[in-house]
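Q: Could you predict the 3D structure of Transcriptional regulator?
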Amino acid sequence: MRLTILSLLQERELCVYELVEILQTSQPNVSQHMRKLKDGGLVKEAKKGQWVFYSLNIGDKPYLHELFQHLPSKKKEVDAVSCEKLNCCD
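A: Sure. Here are the predicted structure tokens for Transcriptional regulator:
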């Protein structure tokens, strides 16, 4: 699941509820995976009000760029959700 999350974040910054919708899992499950990825230095979070948004943090890890070239695109899944459609993060 964590590689899928990284592939999703390669497309754009996502809020936790967008990730929940795409991954079809619970918010606590997503948050647990995000905590591990954040602890590993692979993602960063930004709080906007009560909402948490996640983005990749791999600029200082050039060795990961080749890995990301081999991950399948998740653009279609990311484009299908938005905070506006989910009525969250306002």
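Q: Anything worth pointing out?
A: The mean pLDDT is 91.
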